[in-house]
């Protein structure tokens, strides 16, 4: 006899059709969750030891990569040579004074210059004060000031001492006073100290705000989902514990194995809180369902571990597999992959061990501090007659129509991806409201040589320094011939104090995110470097490299080239994991296809929003006409992994209903109805956390936050609520069966 949807109960666990009481009488098969629940004190003590150890490890700090370690190719060699040389320089702050209208007259320039110098001479932290320099436009005067801090070259090699941000305070105060005294002038300053003070502190404040806001927002969503304070607090506790444990392990890895990218901590927080809460949410929700259906506390924990817990393990393995795609890319992504994989693995382990033990300790107290009206909502939850159940019923009745309609909509959202352009943005990606950014814009407009430059770096024996200098000067006409240099008379040749390294800085009138930058770099490498190398062929031990803005061009090309390989790696491994997990080649192939659609739609929305200007006022950014070059690769692995949370959970509930005797289409309706609530709640947590990152000041973080939030929202609604049920209905029994030689982990 086949059970129809109308014969099935509206909530709770699905019974075996021929014996409705059998499931309640049958003792669940013993598993890790039941063992941890029975040995709860031992398990919780072990978990606390791990957490305490992680805190100790985190106290030792992280060893982060140097900026040059994130670069690739020829430009990386150029930067390493430049950073390893001592140019006798000091960190320099530049005061920029611009008339709001007209030009400076000779009678104005002299007194202004004296006033400028007098404002900074003798200030704490100021080592040298230069002479005021007027720009050709007559509207701008600049003053270079050397700081009493660690030289740029020494700081790059890790030398300790006073950093620019430590000593620039008095100078910033003097600049502010000058600006107040001259309201008719625009007076500001830019340099490593002012940028670190204003931009760096603002970004730190942004991340602290995101970290502080994300926890109460997450707790609020869970309160609505569970209707009880204690039940809502359990996933938050697990999520925070997973993040802290993973950060400790990441710190140990950075000190013992390989240094990590400075953004690894933010990524661990972003991913760890999302998946940690989601995994705990799945298990706690299932345990409460089983308990409400009449199971004892121990039985409910065991059944939750055997169903939702197993789905979490499969999902976690798939997420880790997706994250490992960053290892294929290598370079700057290696350390990000380590942090992301660690936090997901810890979250899975905590959900499989610590969570059952914690639920066993709490028992029915997990329902404590219930919110008003929560019992009424709980009674309706999981009903096949609910909104999601009715939608799934409509989809499975006409699956082809729904699949084509929803597929067309998602594909339409993905279309703008074809016009996506990537770049590594520089200062232009920072908010124009920052005083240091405004000063930088005015400085580079008046003095292009202080803006974007393509640097030709030559390393040669000191005794041949005169030959190198002559060769670089002879290369200037070829630089002019490229048509890419802003003004050749502003090109500068600087030499290290030991005369072994020379740098020719060729200014280009482009931002680092400008698509024409790659052409300028190619022109210098193709038309300037060959002649220089030929002229220096007789100088032994000579190395010629191109750096500066070339670093952005090289890294962008490298990232774009790595993306197809990462995509292929993740797609193949995801297919294999799904095949082994559920035993159906058709389901595994459909999983890959649906996830590709979901990621494509996220790319399309991100391109539509950030490569154009229509959303600037809405989201508070200035479009630079491109997407951060590292974002597509990172988003692909993150979204492909995170979307598996919902996919595996929905498919698992559908498989349960099918295994209990429901027809393939009835199983889809039942599985979607019973998983919709938890998937919606989990998605709300992720969307809330990711959306907070969309409020940060930097353009790249806005793109990441908006892209991830949009993708999760689409994935949990349109893709999992419509497309997945339609595809499962079209596949029928093929979604649950496959070759006998394929091992099946999820029956």
Contiguous helical run count: 27
* Oligomerization category of the chains in this entry: single chain
Structural class: alpha+beta
* Form type: elongated
What percentage of the residues does DSSP assign to strands (E)? 5-15%
Distance between the termini: 20 Å
Number of strands: 11
Largest sheet: 5 strands, antiparallel
Q: Kindly state the percentage of residues in helix.
A: 55-70%
Uncertain ranges:
1-26
Radius of gyration: 30 Å
Mean pLDDT, all residues = 82
Provide an overview of this structure.
By secondary structure, this protein is an alpha+beta fold. The protein has helices at residues 22-25, 32-38, 40-59, 73-83, 106-120, 152-156, 164-167, 169-181, 192-226, 229-256, 264-292, 297-323, 325-329, 333-352, 354-362, 374-380, 387-397, 399-414, 435-446, 465-482, 517-535, 550-582, 585-610, 616-619, 631-659, 664-693, 699-731, and strands spanning 92-99, 126-129, 133-134, 140-147, 185-190, 422-423, 453-459, 492-495, 501-507, 543-548, 627-628. The strands form three sheets. Strands 1, 2, 3, 4 and 5 form a five-stranded antiparallel beta sheet that branches. Strand 3 and strand 4 (140-147) form a beta hairpin. Helix 2 packs across helix 12, helix 12 runs antiparallel to helix 14 (333-352) and helix 17 packs across helix 27. The protein starts with 21 loop residues before the first helix and ends in a 16-residue tail after the last helix. The model is unreliable at 1-26 (pLDDT under 50).
């Amino acid at each position: 006899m086949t059970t129809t949807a109308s014969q099935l109960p509206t909530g709770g666990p699905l019974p075996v059709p021929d014996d409705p009481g059998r499931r309640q009488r049958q003792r669940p098969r013993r598993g890790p969750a039941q063992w941890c629940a029975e040995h709860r004190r031992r398990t919780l003590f072990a978990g606390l030891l791990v957490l305490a150890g992680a805190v100790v490890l985190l106290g030792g700090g992280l060893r982060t990569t140097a900026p040059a370690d994130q670069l690739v190719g020829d430009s990386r060699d150029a930067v390493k040579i430049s950073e390893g040389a001592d140019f006798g320089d000091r960190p320099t702050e530049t005061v920029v004074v611009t008339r709001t209208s007209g030009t400076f007259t000779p009678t104005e320039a002299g007194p202004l210059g004296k006033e400028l110098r007098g404002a900074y001479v003798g200030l704490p932290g100021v080592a040298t004060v230069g002479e005021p320099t007027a720009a050709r436009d007559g509207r701008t005067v600049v003053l270079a000031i050397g700081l009493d801090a660690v030289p740029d070259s020494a700081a790059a090699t890790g030398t300790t001492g006073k950093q620019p941000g430590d000593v620039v305070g008095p100078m910033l105060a003097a600049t502010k006073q000058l600006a107040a005294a001259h309201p008719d002038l625009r007076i500001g300053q830019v340099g490593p100290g002012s940028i670190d003070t204003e931009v760096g502190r603002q970004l730190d404040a942004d991340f602290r705000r995101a970290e502080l806001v994300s926890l109460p927002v997450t707790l609020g969503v869970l309160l609505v989902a569970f209707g009880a304070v204690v039940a809502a607090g359990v996933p938050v506790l697990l999520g925070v514990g997973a993040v802290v444990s993973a950060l400790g392990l990441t710190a140990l890895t950075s000190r013992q194995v390989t240094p990590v990218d400075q953004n690894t901590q933010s990524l661990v927080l972003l991913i760890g809180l999302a998946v940690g809460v989601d995994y705990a949410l799945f298990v706690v929700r299932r345990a409460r369902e089983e308990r409400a259906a009449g199971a004892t506390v121990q039985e409910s924990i065991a059944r939750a571990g055997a169903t939702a817990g197993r789905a979490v393990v499969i999902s976690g393995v798939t997420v880790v597999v997706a994250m490992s795609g960053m290892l294929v890319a290598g370079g700057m992504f290696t350390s990000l992959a380590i942090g992301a994989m660690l936090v997901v693995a810890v979250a899975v382990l905590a959900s499989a061990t610590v969570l059952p033990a914690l639920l066993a300790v709490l028992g029915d107290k997990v329902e404590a501090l219930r919110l008003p009206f929560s019992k009424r909502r709980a009674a309706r939850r999981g009903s096949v007659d609910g909104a999601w159940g009715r939608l799934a019923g409509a989809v499975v009745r006409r699956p082809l129509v729904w699949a084509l309609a929803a597929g067309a909509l998602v594909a339409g959202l993905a279309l703008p991806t074809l016009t996506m352009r990537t770049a590594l943005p520089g200062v232009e990606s920072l908010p124009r409201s920052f005083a240091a950014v405004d000063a930088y814009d005015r400085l580079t407009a008046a003095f292009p040589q202080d803006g974007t430059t393509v640097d030709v770096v030559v390393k040669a024996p000191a005794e041949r320094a005169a030959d190198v200098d002559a060769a670089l000067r002879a290369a200037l006409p070829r630089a002019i011939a490229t048509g890419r240099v802003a003004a050749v008379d502003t090109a500068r040749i600087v030499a290290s104090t030991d005369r072994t390294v020379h740098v020719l800085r060729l200014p280009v009138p482009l931002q680092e995110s400008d698509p024409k930058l790659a052409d300028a770099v190619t022109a210098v490498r193709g038309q300037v470097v060959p002649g220089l190398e030929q002229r220096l062929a007789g100088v032994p031990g000579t190395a010629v490299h191109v750096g500066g803005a070339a670093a952005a061009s090289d890294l962008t090309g490298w990232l774009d080239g790595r993306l197809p390989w990462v995509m292929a790696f993740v797609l193949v491994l995801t297919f294999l994991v799904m095949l082994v997990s559920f035993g159906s080649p058709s389901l595994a192939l459909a999983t890959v296809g649906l996830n590709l659609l979901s990621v494509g739609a996220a790319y399309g929305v991100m391109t539509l929003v950030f490569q154009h200007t229509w959303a600037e006022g809405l989201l508070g950014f200035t479009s630079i006409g491109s997407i951060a070059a590292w974002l597509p690769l990172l988003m692909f692995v993150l979204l492909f992994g995170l979307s598996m949370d919902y996919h595996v959970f929905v498919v698992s509930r559908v498989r349960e209903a099918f295994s209990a005797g429901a027809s393939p289409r009835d199983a889809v309706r039942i599985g979607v109805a019973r998983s919709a609530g938890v998937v919606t709640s989990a998605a709300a947590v992720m969307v809330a956390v990711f959306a907070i990152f969309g409020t940060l000041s930097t353009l790249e973080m806005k793109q990441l936050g908006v892209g991830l939030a949009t993708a999760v929202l689409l994935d949990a609604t349109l893709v999992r609520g419509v497309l997945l049920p339609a595809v499962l209905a079209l596949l029928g029994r093929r979604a649950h069966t496959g070759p006998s030689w394929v091992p099946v982990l999820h029956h």
